[in-house]
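Progress note, sequence design subtask.
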């Protein structure tokens, strides 16, 4: 059985998807971009600010599911320019303990929704 996870502290879906699905003890988040959940505006002052908003959106979804970043076992990071990897990684790393950090892949893509620079999704377990 699956449970839909929804919070107003992260951007609400605009389409046929949900912020996250909890099935059994596993949470699958949809990819998050740097939309501010209250204003709906993109946060793009810098790649660091953009990445931080993405991580804060994911934090809110995890929290709604009763989890934290410690529960995350896998992340997928999609970026529009691999030259931004070091800056994205620096912000991303602030949310995890290096010794227990999740598995991850980082992929450069041609385009992302709203032409953002970074999108991240996660898998977490209770």
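Output:
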């Amino acid at each position: 059985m699956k449970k839909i996870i929804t919070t107003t502290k992260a951007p609400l879906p605009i389409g046929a998807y949900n912020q996250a699905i909890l099935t059994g003890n596993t949470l699958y988040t949809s990819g998050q971009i740097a939309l501010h959940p209250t204003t709906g505006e993109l946060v793009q002052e810098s790649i660091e600010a953009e990445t931080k908003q993405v991580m804060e959106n994911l934090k809110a979804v995890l929290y709604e599911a009763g989890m934290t970043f410690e529960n995350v076992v896998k992340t997928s990071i999609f970026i529009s320019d691999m030259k931004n990897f070091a800056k994205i990684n620096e912000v991303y790393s602030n949310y995890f303990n290096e010794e227990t950090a999740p598995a991850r892949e980082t992929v450069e893509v041609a385009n992302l929704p709203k032409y953002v620079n970074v999108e991240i999704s996660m898998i977490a377990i209770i």
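The chain has one domain: 2-125. Work on this subtask will continue into the next period as scheduled.
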